Amino acid sequence: MTTSATDYDTIILGAGAAGLAAGLYTTRAMLKTLIIEQLGPGGQLLITDEIENYPGFPRGREGPGTGDDDGAADHAVVHTDDRTLTAKSLIIATGGSHNKLGASGEDEFSGRGVSYCAVCDGNFFRGQDVVVVGGGDAAMDEGHYLTGIVNSVTYIHRRDELRATKVLQERAFNNDKVKFLWSHVVEEFVGNEALEAARVKNLKTEEIYDYNTAAAFIYVGFHPNTEYLKGLVEMDALGHVYTDIHMRTGVPGLYACGDARADSTRQLGAAVGDGITAALTAYHDLQE
Ligand SMILES: Cc1cc2nc3c(=O)[nH]c(=O)nc-3n(C[C@H](O)[C@H](O)[C@H](O)COP(=O)(O)OP(=O)(O)OC[C@H]3O[C@@H](n4cnc5c(N)ncnc54)[C@H](O)[C@@H]3O)c2cc1C
Q1: Radius of gyration from C-alpha coordinates of the chain
Q2: Which CATH number fits domain 8-98+222-287: 3.50.50.60, 3.30.930.10, 3.40.50.300, 3.40.50.150?
């Protein structure tokens, strides 16, 4: 336990599932806690239609509803935009954000047909034909959500098989509204005022052509939000923070949990469990 006076016992960065779970446990342990969140509480849940695999909720749960910092000798110092705060321990729970595809026109048509959030933007394309780029769980989940709103969903996938969980694959294959462009990549987004087509390339034939669509929903992976930790803590090549099973990083008093940490399964239940573990470990360490 540290001896110098600090503003808080623990500061938690991020109010997604992991950060909120950690906060619940640190406050119940009577640790003076501050959660710092750059947007609002919820994290990725805010852009998720439905969580079907959270234990205890057999009918699923709807998604929405459910600074910089540095290390000092004996406490953490967090610089936000307008103040400097100190704490005896710091829990990193800043999760991850979607990857961009990197196709030309992607930024130009963002908000005018190109979207990363089916739940937020799906309704704008009611009854129309849309594409989903990607072949993992998020693409399948959110594409399924879209089939309840739009006329058709075409998955554009660079491989000729999906990475997604089998049950999600089967659901897509059995849905009449779903089509696939296998072994295709998007080269460019084209249109005038709004998106009109995805210029795609068939990787097997090299053919390039315009595939008409009102919208493109992009789900091509995530990156951890840990840029601000570079040089402070050990991370893998993608920027996930290494921890032990107790969520301790190599820096005393610094913990990481949820999607931001290496070896996370990137699931809601795991993020909650990580957050609880991080909080209880921080509490335990502060008692010593
Ligand atoms: C489309 C989609 C569908 C999904 N479906 C499922 C599913 O069906 N089942 C399942 O189990 N999981 C699912 N997941 C994954 C699950 O939502 C995540 O594993 C979980 O929400 C991660 O929680 P987290 O708290 O670690 O991170 P996040 O939810 O990413 O929260 C991190 C928080 O930190 C904030 N933040 C970031 N940087 C900073 C900073 N510098 N300062 C302050 N705050 C910051 C962010 O704004 C955010 O609020 C899905 C995810 C997506 C995107």
Answers
A1: 21
A2: 3.50.50.60
